[in-house]
Amino acid sequence: MMSASRPLSSTQARVLELLSSAAKPLSAYDLLGMLREEGVNAPPTVYRALERLMRDGLAHRIESLNAFVACNRPHHSELASFAICDHCGVVTEFTDHDLQMRLSAVSGRSGFHATRMTVEIHGHCAKCADHAHGHAH
Amino acid sequence: MMSASRPLSSTQARVLELLSSAAKPLSAYDLLGMLREEGVNAPPTVYRALERLMRDGLAHRIESLNAFVACNRPHHSELASFAICDHCGVVTEFTDHDLQMRLSAVSGRSGFHATRMTVEIHGHCAKCADHAHGHAH
DNA sequence: GTCTTATGTGTTATGATATAACATATAACA
DNA sequence: TGTTATATGTTATATCATAACACATAAGAC
User: Taking Cα atoms as reference points, which of A109, A94, A25, A134 lies closest to residue B81?
Assistant: First the structure.
């Protein structure tokens, strides 16, 4: 059922490490900046590593930020959804089965066949909501 | 309740027309290309018009495509969700109240306060699903 | 009327994100 | 050993988006 796949290359593993240890999503160019000391000099290398990680369900792209995060439930294939704090930048991944069902059902009504879903919620996390009443920072 | 706002400028109206009559989402540069004949020469003008239209709920940005569509329910403020056919490119906007409730509830559990939600479903529309069994085109 | 404010546009330049195309290298395996 | 799949290097370029500043105009305050 689960297709075998090669182990990660060192670049791929490095990118995953960087994403995992970051407090916030990183852009491909953030990653490139961090990898230059290690001999990676060009965007394609980074994008290819990200592609691999995403294919394996080890990382996600946040579409509304053009940035990437490590998956917090590696190898689970549920719909990943994201709560993005526009104040502190922290992104929280969550999964909700009912939500996924409802999304499939609603879109499928018209005969649409879903292959990929993006759910991104912007706002303020609990911590930031306290001191962010209306003003944007 | 509904804040008054100026009428659209001619550029803004033109951008909205172009989006409305397009079969698919248009990028800012697609729009710019169409507007060059009409004297619009630079990206900022287009982005500004789009910004205004989005602020007024007359257009939406599709994050996963970096492109824009006219809103099909202007001035309604519900969560807009999108089904995007990766075969023919057609984007269908839909609204589902329960979905919105569930999203708010799930993200709000942890004290998160949502201000904006992005829901984009990629796949194949009914028409394309017929002749797209596995192959991507 | 004219001052002020908010809004929109023009213009130039640049920043930020992403991929095309082709060459080279290496591991797995028939 | 040849073949295939995968990863990387390298150069160049495509695509998407905004900064900064100047100028124009409409609406309301006075």
Answer: A109
